[in-house]
Amino acid sequence: MRTVKQAWLYCLHKLWIFFAIFVVLMATLVSALRFGLPYAPGYKTDIEQWIKAEYGTEVRIGALSAGWQGTGPALVLQQLEVLDSSYQPQLTVRETGIRLDFWRSLRTMKLSAAHFELTGLTYRVDAQRWLGTGVATPTDNQQLFDALQDLFFKQLQHFSVLDSQLVFHNTQDEDIRLDIKALNWQNEGDRHQGWGELSVADVTANTLSFIIDLTGEPSKAQGQLYLASQQLDLLPWFQQLLPQTRKLNSAKLNFAAWGDIKAGKLQQIDVALSDNNVGWLKDGVWNKVALSDGYLRWVPMAKGWNLSSSPMTLSNSSQSWPGLQLQLSQNELGYQASLQHLQLGVARPLLELFSDGSEQLQSLLAYQLDGKVDRVDLVTERDQWYLSGQFNEFSSAPVADVPGVKGFNGRFVASPHFGWLGLKAQDGALQWGEAFSKDWTYKGAELELAWRKRAGNWQILVPYLSLWQDAFSLEAELVVNLDDKPDMDLVAELHGVPVQNAEQFFPKFYMPESVINYLKPALVSGDVSSGKVLWSGDFSAYPYAEKDGVFQAVAEVTNAEFLFDENWPSLTDLSAELFFENAAMLISSKSGYLVDAPVEQGVQVGIADLYNADKLIIDIKQQLLAEQVTTLMQASPLHDSVGETLAYLGVTGPVKGDVRLSIGLNEPTVDIKGAIDFERNGVALSAPALVGENLTGRLSFHNDILTADDLQLFISNIPVQFGFRGEQQQDNYKVSLLSQGLQNSQELLLSLAPQLEHFAAGPLNWQFKLDLLLAGEGYTYQADLALDLTDTELLLPAPLAKKSGQSGTVFWSSSGSQDNSVIALTYQDLVFFDASYVHEQGQIGRAHLSLGDKENAGFADGFTISANLDKTDFMPWFELIRHQVSQQSDETGLLPALTSVKAKVNTLKVTDEISFDQVQLQLKPEANSWVVDINSTQTKGQLTLAKDLMAQGIEANLEFLKLFPYDPLKAEAEALAAAESLAKLTKEQQIAKALADVVKPEPMPWLADLPPIKLDCKSCVFGPFDLGQLTMQTESDGERLTIQSFESRYKKHQLSIKGQWQKDTEAGVTTLSASLISPDFGQLMKDYHLSSAVAGSSAEVRIDDLSWAGGPTQFNYATLGGKLNWQLGEGSLSEVSDKGARLLSIFSLGSLVRKLKLDFRDIFSKGFFYTEMKGDLQLDKGVAHTNNTMVDGAAGKIEIQGYADLVTRQLDYQMAFLPKITSSLPVLVALLQFNPATGLAALALDEIVESAEVISKVNFVVTGNFDQPEVVEVARHTTEVEIPRSDLLKAEQEKRLRLQQEQEPQQQPAKPAANSKTKDKANG
């Protein structure tokens, strides 16, 4: 036990001695240190050299001081610099304070600092090494930094860093400077932890907190990095970007970040964003942009790093847009960035803060870009970059002539020298701002835009631009060169633009406002079927006055209405071409209407220089109908001058119009000039009513001044030269017209009234003057016409006739207004015509014509005529009366319906053969007809003319009608004279003359259009023919005239006719059937003074299909055809002459009787008694054939066959006389009675007579003509008979008695003797 105690005490003693020695030594060491520390600055160089020798690093120490603090020495280094191989500071420390832990250092045999503090540290490090991105650049002072690392992480338990800066150097980007306000570092074994506050230099105004917690050696340490900011102020950073204006009021950053560290390197950083915003005050309103609600993750890569985000929320003061995502990576080639769901509108307010001093940024902000960027990708490689992306709902505001858009979706790519943009949109609009009057709406839009750099200048290309909406479409291509003189090449085409919307396509920056203000109301409606635009040239040179560029715009307009002036009618249904070329504008019509006038290519609207235009020119050159020009002028500002004048003239037909309107664009003025060229137009003056044709010449006008010289008009083929002038008076518009001329009166009448052509001859001088006053809606006028008849011969019925050289003047005047006119005409003191003309009715309302003495009874309704003449002709006035009578009740003509005609004429001549004496005539209307009462020496009765004349016709009821007075003595004398004249000609000459006298009938087509006619005449006498009571009825149907009945009753004689006239291409054909029944044919012939050769004898004559070429009154032998059957009863041929007896002349029976020397006497009278006479005639082309004509007489029978040519009046008959054997004695007695000498001879030859040969048959040939028949006996047949002597004596006694009776009428006037030659031939 003791040993143990002793051992323990020994050890304790030794230990104490050791402690004492140690204490002494430590005290000595401490004392030495305390004594030696003040001399430490002297070792500064030694320290620098030692560090260089130990670590191979250049170190500079600005100042060194040492002392004893507390329980250990303290060392202070100032302005410490660690230099790299290029002697540039890599690490600088403004002051380093070290307080050693003396005892720990002894214990561990290593320097151990109780306190280590760095102030003003600036450490430049390789960012790639610290951040673990790529390959770190080896440092020049690696050993020193390893030693420092060992110091800070192993040897020092605690140190702090104040007011220091850590600079992350990056060769590819700017350095990142972290300001460390305070850093406290604690080492506990393998665990190393630091905390403090730092800020980003020039970025934040305050600090953020951070914590670093590591385990293990620094090069292999693992742990985390935590950063947190509360209202981190980023305003300094923004102030660097906005150094001039400093408009930003706040910029706060709030986040929390965690970083993972492995193997001594930062592996990733996760950042949780809170409310991060910037705010500023503008115009008293607080604006804010915030980014929140998201996460960021930074991850280092092998050769760079990558930054990505979760969906973040971007917001402003009023709206938020969630979903923003960011992707950013970096490698040795450059950067790659991707941004998704970015709302451009949020950034616009921020960009406004950066725009001061930046024209480019201000220009960009002016577009007010907005939209959602679905994705944008950026790739950078060295000096090159490539950008691409897609977006939707893109919108922008209009700037200058660049439109604003809305709702566009698209894609884009860009690089330093090229870019492309593709846009599509639906149901949007191009917003033009001030460039165009309205936005261009569309249902669809597509755009491709590219830009590229060529020869150092940018070029913008739009290879495809398309807009469409319903029928509207626009397509364009353009190229813009942005060089020293920017220029553009543009081609565009549009379709289906309504004209009323054309205003929105007028470029307001390039088209003068005055032109737009004109076109805006002028383009009323229509469609732009197609439009094209071509632009090539410098912008600065527009509108290319020097022809150094071209701008052309062409638009095809259809179904348009164009109002070129508010006071003019608009162009309707217009098809036109709208053409702009540089500074000029031209609108050319292709078709359309001005009022109702088609204009075709006749209208042009033009401005020569849009930019120096003070007026717009409208040229209208078109051939139109004059009526259309009149309507146009009446609808224009010239309605009171040109319009009313043309309306008054009543011009019709095509004319050439040339009108130029100069419309002021700056002042509301219109100047109108023009001309109208007449090209054979019709004219119908309103008052006096005058109609003309073939009007030629030119009418010129300048505003309200009208001039027209050398106009020519044909009035009823009469050329008339005239001129007029119109100008505005104080209260009305006055037109003065003057015309004069010389005309052949016969030609004048031929033109005006052809039926009066022969009533005048010689020249006619005339002068016409018209003064027209147009006032508002109406007018007044005074027209005067004077006809000088001095050199004119009037061939009118007396008393209107005059000879050339006798003075005579016709005065005509007309005056009135637009409602009515008063017309007066006088000729000498013989003709007076007064009328009132109602313009609205288009006819004379009341008129009165006086012939002879003027009646002053005043006007009566309608047209009245009065006449009181001694002698006059009816035909010159008949046409006027006929027209009035035939006028229908519902018709309107120039003259009113005739209401009354009263005439007294001593002698009324109708034709040369017909005249009426002591005529009193009165015409008056009935409900449906006109009734004419006529009374004269020749007739008396009433005519009824139906007003529906063609349907109901004319009905004549006459008490008597006596025409063609007949003198039988005169007629017989004329017949004998004609026969003597014909006897002087040979047979050939007679035939030639007869054929030459054949006249071809004139066509009378009007017969087929005659109204129905009914005639009832109680006593009708035409020359020698007393028809007694006559009734007749006819009708027409347009192709033929039908004689339905023609019945004549004279005494007991009855004549009936029916037939028709058929129209053809020539004179037509008349065909009749008739019958004549007469109880005493001989007496009828005597009453008609045709023949006294026949006595007694009833007659039946039937005519079938009697026809001839011509009308019913154009009877002619040349074409006569048909059949005739006749039969006479008992009678006698009482005379030897048959002149005028047509039937007997045909057969030459009288000549035959004379040849036979028969005295045709019966017991009742002298002559040849017959019991029957009959036969048939066949008529063909005027030749009458018979083969069965027979006369059965008491003395014998006559048989006839052959023909008679009614045209040449030639005969060719074979006749046979067959005496009756039982009646031969009367024949012989007749021979004795006829020739006394022969009778005496017969008595002397008593024996022969008592036993004589009797004629049984005698054959004759009859030739020659009707007036000179030649009867030749060709054969005689006899037989013997016995005659008692008593009979011969009786015959002689009768002869003597006859001779005594013939001597009694010797005191009567002798009749003209027959031609001796004729008698000889007859006797022969």
From TrEMBL:
Show the segment(s) annotated as Disordered. 1292-1324
**Low complexity bias: start-end ranges:** 1302-1314
Annotated YhdP central domain ranges read: 13-1271
> Where does the source fall among the domains of life?
Bacteria
UniProt biased composition (Basic and acidic residues): 1292-1301
Indicate what this protein is called per its UniProt record: TIGR02099 family protein
- Species name: Rheinheimera tangshanensis
What lineage does the source organism belong to? Bacteria, Pseudomonadati, Pseudomonadota, Gammaproteobacteria, Chromatiales
